[in-house]
Amino acid sequence: MNKKHLFINLTAFLTVQLFAVLPLFAGSYTATDISLTPGKNATKLNLNWQTTSSSTRCAVQIAKSGTTLFKNFVPTTKKTASDLTGASYSYCEVEASNLVSDTDYIYRVGDGTNWSAQHPYSTRNPNKFSFFFVSDPQIGASGDTASDGSSWSNTLVTMTDEFSDAAFIMSGGDQVDTATNEDQYTKFFAPAALTSLPIAPAVGNHEGSAVNFNYHYNLPNESSTYGVNSAAGDYYFTYGNALFIVLNMEPTNSLYPSSGGGGGGGPGGPPPDTDKDGVDDGHDYCPNDVGLATNNGCPEGQTGTKPVPPGGGGGGCSDIISDADFEAKLAAKDMTAFVASINQHKAFMQGAIAANPTVKWKVVMWHYSIYSAGNHAADSQVRAIRYYMVDVLDDLKVDLVLMGHDHAFTRTYQMENDNPQKNQTANSNGQIVDPTGTLYITQSSSSGSKYYDLNCKYPADPYFDYVSAGTQLYKPQFSYISVDDSTLSISTYRTDTMQEIDTYSILKN
Ligand SMILES: [Fe+2]
Predict the structure, then answer these.
(1) pLDDT of 32-70, one tens digit each?
(2) Cα(372) to centroid(ligand 1), Å
(3) How far is the CA of 195 from the centre of ligand 1 (A)?
(4) Residue 225 β-bridge partners
(5) pLDDT surpasses 70 at 150
(6) 248-265 burial string, b = 16+ CB within 10 Å, else e?
(7) pTM of the model
(8) Which of 7, 175, 184, 338 is spaced 20 to 30 Å from 192 by Cα?
(9) 344 CA to middle of ligand 1, Å?
(10) What's the 174 CA to ligand 1 centre distance in angstroms?
(11) HSE (CB half, 13 Å, CA atoms) of 3?
């Protein structure tokens, strides 16, 4: 060990010791579930926290690291509300602004007089930055909330140890398993990394329309018109030359007609949502979908009784109907409300792009993967979202779509008009140069609380011709995405070995 390293180690040791022994840092204000979200742009930061303080005031102070010259931000009034279970909440939402890039800060939250413990927060260079993409930590899904929380924490520690420069996290939904379970929320926000790293969450089907999601995140540019349910509305933010749009697909999903065009739980058909994943789909015959799926869609260790298809033939893998048959199925349904919901997302994205017409990169995220190699790949609802959304994304020239829900990893080819665009130009670095179409990435679980097997028809069925890479490693994973004015590069890692399992880079001139 050289002297420099010795000095750094001693400094780190003394800092840890000082924090450990000085009550000065403990703070006199109780704030729990502190939640940072990207602000409207890189100069802003959104904060949310729960408090038992009797004060009605919410305030935030930030100082440059190494000083105590705290700067105040516009205070707000504490919000109080109750959730679907009748539990009452007091929570605060404050926006910090005029933050300088590439700067280490400390911050504290409070009521303007009493303050919480201090936490570090660092801004990054918005001209050349990176972010993480995680999905479906779904704290509580394994049945052991503490274990899921521990695995989630391990993922955050692993990824921030490896990549200490990320500006924020995009999370593809199902952060918790039970929409109204505050213990799960507390375990989700418990890792220290989340008091320093903003997280932009999509609403997942497990967070549904419960208000708890709304109490826990202070979302930037959140719509009160588009994609709205009691959990959230569509929202967006910019970071440098990139626009990030997050759509709440829950209202859309709930408008998919459950009857008309066949199915619906008749004799031989799957019973409605018996696995309680919020979707009436092809694996509802499983008792529940917790675990490692290995047997034609049922989790490992569960046999389930698969309905006998019309005309007999016995178990095995469900066939995936053709695009033409699926289109006929949609034509037999009243899709008016569903399409209206899709059009809301379209209007929201158009507005976000119109407000930021010069951005180089457009990234969109929602929960339900529409291009997956996993079990949900041919669910009617997600297929309907694909049917109506891809034209919109083509028209808006979206570069990258981030999704979850299937707890398995999928990277598509560049996609346009629902067709894989396989003839792209790669340079000597393997970068795809000025690609046509949009790239879609589906993240596996980032905590490992639940995995789905790859679809039993993948890769044999031509339905999956959109898949360039589809894997299920049954290990928590995350992606690290770096962005500058000309490149967007995505590398995906398994957290147990930090082995890179997929990489893809776009160069845009
Ligand atoms: Fe989901």
Answers:
(1) 999 999 999 999 999 999 999 999 999 999 999 999 999
(2) 13
(3) 25
(4) none
(5) yes
(6) bbbbbbbbbbeeebeeeb
(7) 0.87
(8) 7
(9) 21
(10) 6
(11) 0
